[in-house]
Amino acid sequence: MAEDNQMLEMHHDEDGLGKVEIAPEVIEVIAGIAASEVEGVAQMRGNFASGVVERLGRKNHGKGVKVELSDDGIKVDVYCTMNFGVSIPAVAQEVQDNIRQALLNMTALEASEVNIHIVGIQFDTQKAEPEFQAEE
């Protein structure tokens, strides 16, 4: 469980109802979904544990995203694989814009940095046609 100093406190008008805190994991999930929605992103990079969890049927939306909270603001690092043939700078810019907009819409928070790390290219793999051997 995240410690209190790891939580991001929302500063809105004080109405006496209490405070709202957002865990960094929530920002990771929002950024992960926003990045994977962009056309041209093949997949997000995960680790062995997230791969096992996905094979068991549970989708890990925060994989491939690292969120750092500091005095300078929110820093988001996204690690993804692109489809072959896309314009990497254009898709990366779209991923950055989509993440910024999703964070702003859902949390009213502005990210100070959204860094995109391209860790691979996915090629379209066509199924090889089975070779038929002539019977003798």
UniProtKB/TrEMBL annotation:
One Pfam family, short name please?
A: Asp23
Family per UniProt?
Belongs to the asp23 family.
What name does this protein carry? Asp23/Gls24 family envelope stress response protein
- Organism source for this protein? Heyndrickxia coagulans 36D1
